[in-house]
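quick one
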Amino acid sequence: MMAVEPKGGTTADKKPFPKTALPPGGGYILKPPDETGRWEVSTYRWDPNQVIVNQGDSVTLEIIGINGAEHPAAIEGYDQKFTVKRGEVTRVVFRATKAGVFRIVCAAHNPAMVGELIVLARS
Ligand SMILES: [Cu+2]
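structure w/ copper (II) ion:
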């Protein structure tokens, strides 16, 4: 997995700077026009943002930090907390004991940076 920041931009003469604020929480960034009129929008995400495993699997997530200095994160319902830092690989190792869908949430980039751990029930 990666922690990445997709980014887009244009100049105010092509598309006026949006008047509506984006949802708060650090997950969306809207940079107002600079001296050249260029403005940018970006967000943070896990890529891929879904991990599918089978119940009972030993899971190792290797997550590299590409954009953003730090991503303090957790897998809700699995008691896994970790921080992904730019330029480093963070390994998250656990056994998928519980079936279900569990959010992988970065506390610094709400509400955008949310992935899903999907644990398929053992039949
Ligand atoms: Cu983040």
